[in-house]
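yo

u said u wanted the structure for the complex thing, so here. seqs first:
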Amino acid sequence: MPISRDHLESAIRSAIPIIHLDIIDQSNGCGENYAVFVVSPAFEGKNTLARHRFINEVLKDQIAQMHAFSQKTLTPKQYEAQQVSEVA
Amino acid sequence: MSLNMFRSSLRSGLSSSLRTSATVAFSSPRIALARRFLSDDARAKIQSAVKSTPVVLFMKGTPEAPMCGFSRAAVQVLGLHGVPPEKIQTFNVLEDQELRTGIKEFSDWPTIPQLYVDGEFVGGCDILLSMHQSGELEDLLEKKGILPPLSEEARASSTSS
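structre next:
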């Protein structure tokens, strides 16, 4: 059964405060390949591995049903810095 | 340790343990919640595998013929850094279903590829790529003695380019 974008979004939003969230369906329709980009203050002080483990846990059941899952996790500060460097 | 030895020993260990441990009631609540089926025996085998060489990659396919874009990317990043062949070992999880599920549980990580450096879990493809971009991967490989440290001169020219 395909996993819906909304399902992933609500799971993430209910787990941590969200500044920015992109959920990209990369599956061409089958709903088994998602990439998420999460910006949250909850990531402050946590290394990338800990952040990814957290998201893996939040989406545990969904990821188990997917073929592929990719994620990027930033703090608001990192997100701002990234936007500045993209503009520059 | 040869790959074949590992594979056969892991398979026998895992399949027999899976049969017996699935019905065992675990005493630790954390273990029970996570529905852990990995036996001590299977765990010990994966533990020795992750320490078999300084760099260990669990992947789909082989470095010569990766069977997934994420595994291919992981191999390419390690290749870019010039990790010496004798310091890296890869395991093809597609050839071993028990390893494929066992390593996910062992690392508490849901996807393949998975990278270990010096016996420690580093992360999957996303983490490997971001560490590559930030320079953390190179630092880690140098710190663990897997890559020779760059001379000050080389370091200066690599940052200025």
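The first strand of chain B starts at residue 55 and ends at 59. Chain B touches chain A at residues 68, 70, 108-111, 121-127, 130-131 (CB under 8 Å).
cya
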